[in-house]
Amino acid sequence: MKSAFIFAAGLGTRLKPLTDRMPKALVPYCGTPLLEQTIENLKRQGFDHFVINIHHFAQMIRDFVDQHHSFDTNIEFSDESDLLRDTGGAVKHAAPLLQQGPFLIHNVDIISNLDLDGLYRAHMEDKESPLATLLVSSRETSRYFLFNDQMRLVGWINKSTSEVKSPYPEIAQQPVEELVKSYRTLAFGGMHVISPDIFPLMEEPAWGEKFPIVDFYLAAARDHLIRGYEAPAGTVLTDVGKLDQIK
């Protein structure tokens, strides 16, 4: 079984007014709802078990999947109707459905030509058994992950605000200008492969029910291997979660 967890619970505020009457996952892109495109793309790349988290217009997503006969695959729902848990909390909440082995996280509003099977295999074949493997790329943005020469996550920076986050005090106390000289600065692509070994760590009281996955990774990076996987040349990765971008 090759599992993928599709983030589809968001309110879609950046796509208003479209999301006043439908969830972001069902907004059409080139005539086809984003969720359908995501599932079909993942199926083509060998994924056969899907978990979808739902919150905003949750029943509409359930009905859509039912109407399409679960796209002739195995689909389960992680229902967050009671509380929108952010990305880390969403993973923690879905734990009972994702215990079979490593799973891919895919945001429903990302369109790409990425070899998703290649990302998954990179995680599976890593002899150091990382806790997670994060898709990253060299592109212009304000926020970057920091990686050492072995592509191990060691921190995060915001170039606009000069904010630095790292579980290593010697990194956290350095200015951004020095860190960009010493470490690889790469932007997160919103896709990652996670080992189910992550779930016991998320049960620590400090995390609660709602938290961002990036904050979790930065806290876990000191004691656990979080690996970066740089997108191959020619990869196109587009966030269509805003009106101007989807147009």
Task: Describe, in short, the structure shown.
This protein has 247 residues and is an alpha/beta fold. 27% of the residues lie in helices and 28% in strands. Strands 1, 4, 5, 6, 8, 9, 10, 11, 12 and 13 form a 10-stranded mixed β-sheet that branches.
Order of helices and strands: EEEHEHEHEEHEEEEHHEHHEEH
Provide the β-strand percentage band: 25-35%
- The CATH class name reads Alpha Beta
CATH H level: which superfamily? Spore Coat Polysaccharide Biosynthesis Protein SpsA, Chain A
CA-CA gap between termini:
36 Å
Structural class: alpha/beta
Number of strands: 14
Let me know the largest β-sheet. 10 strands, mixed
What can you see in these coordinates?
The chain is α/β, with parallel strands linked by helices. It has one domain (3-246): Alpha-Beta Complex (Spore Coat Polysaccharide Biosynthesis Protein SpsA, Chain A), CATH 3.90.550. 27% of the residues lie in helices and 28% in strands. The protein is built from 9 helices and 14 strands. The chain has helices at residues 34-44, 58-67, 86-93, 116-125, 169-172, 176-182, 198-202, 213-220, 243-246; strands at 3-7, 28-29, 32-33, 49-54, 74-79, 103-107, 110-112, 132-137, 143-147, 153-158, 163-165, 184-194, 226-230, 237-239. Strands 1, 4, 5, 6, 8, 9, 10, 11, 12 and 13 form a 10-stranded mixed beta sheet that branches. Strands 2-3 form a two-stranded antiparallel sheet. The longest helix is centred in the first third of the chain and has 11 residues, at 34-44. It is globular, with a radius of gyration of 18 Å. It starts with a strand and ends with a helix.
